[in-house]
Amino acid sequence: MEGFNLKNTFFSCITIIVLILSMLFFYEPAQNLLCSFAIFERFLINTPKVCSLFDTTRLSRYKGVDGGKIYLSILGNVFDVTEGRRFYGPGGSYSGFSGRDASRSFITGLFDEENLTDHVSDMDPNDLIGLDTWINTYKKKYKEIGKLIGRYYDSSGKETDYCKLVFEKIKSSKMAKVAKNEEMAKYPSCNIEYVQENQKSKVWCTKLSGGIQRNWIGVPRKLQSLDENGKLSIRCACVQLDTLSKAELMHINEYEDCDANATTCYVTIS
C-alpha cells in the first residue's frame, strides 16, 4: 500500500510538472520548449526577475510584421517597443534594432552585419557609458519583458562572464569619467591659440578658461594625467599653485620661457 502511494505521488508530481511546462509553452504563441524549461528552472530557484526568456530565434519573430509586437534587446535585456512602431516597425528608421540584440549599432549608428551585433566589450569607455545611458532610457520608457539567452544570459537567466565583464567595464568607465570631471574642475584647461608669426602657441588663463566658471584665474602649467583609456597625457591646465600639495605639484611642470606668475605665455606644444 505504501509503495502504491509513493507511485501515485511520483506520477502526480510528473503530471504537475508536465502541466506547468505545457502552460509555459503556450504562454505565448512563439514560446518554445527551451524558453519554457528556462522559465520553469527559474521558477524553481525563485528568481523570476523578468517574465520571460528568449533565444535569438524566438526574439527574431517580433519585428512588428503584420501589426505584431515589436521587441528588441540591449545588452541582453529585452524590451517591448511596440508603442514606438513608427520608429521600430517595418520601414521605420530604427527597424534594424527590432527582433535582435544590436547593442553595437546603438553607438555606431551603422546597420551592417559588423555592427548589428551584441559584441561591445572592445568599445571605448565613452561608448560603454553611452550604452548604459541607452539601456536606462529604455527602462524608463518601455517595459522590460525578459532576457536574451546567449552572450549575456544563460538558459536559466543568469549573467554570463561576458555580461559581468561588460557591466564591470561600464562601472569603471563611469567612475573614471567622474574622476576626470573632478580633475577638470580642479585643473581647467588653458585657452590655446596658435600664433603663426612666431610659430608658437599662446596659452592663457581666465575665470572661464576650459569652460569652467570659477572665482580664480590661475597660471598655465603642463599637467600630467591619465586619460579615460588609462594612458598618460600632457595638457595645458590653469592651476592655483597655493592650493596644491607637494604630491600634486609633482605632476605639474612649468613651461620654458614662461614667467612663473604669468597668466599668459607663448610656448611650444608638441
Automatic annotation (TrEMBL):
<keyword id="KW-0812">Transmembrane</keyword>
<feature type="transmembrane region" description="Helical">
    <location>
        <begin position="9"/>
        <end position="27"/>
    </location>
</feature>
<dbReference type="InterPro" id="IPR036400">
    <property type="entry name" value="Cyt_B5-like_heme/steroid_sf"/>
</dbReference>
<feature type="domain" description="Cytochrome b5 heme-binding">
    <location>
        <begin position="54"/>
        <end position="149"/>
    </location>
</feature>
<dbReference type="Pfam" id="PF00173">
    <property type="entry name" value="Cyt-b5"/>
</dbReference>
<keyword id="KW-0472">Membrane</keyword>
<dbReference type="GO" id="GO:0012505">
    <property type="term" value="C:endomembrane system"/>
</dbReference>
<keyword id="KW-1133">Transmembrane helix</keyword>
<protein>
    <recommendedName>
        <fullName>Cytochrome b5 heme-binding domain-containing protein</fullName>
    </recommendedName>
</protein>
<dbReference type="InterPro" id="IPR001199">
    <property type="entry name" value="Cyt_B5-like_heme/steroid-bd"/>
</dbReference>
<dbReference type="GO" id="GO:0016020">
    <property type="term" value="C:membrane"/>
</dbReference>
<comment type="similarity">
    <text>Belongs to the cytochrome b5 family. MAPR subfamily.</text>
</comment>
<dbReference type="InterPro" id="IPR050577">
    <property type="entry name" value="MAPR/NEUFC/NENF-like"/>
</dbReference>
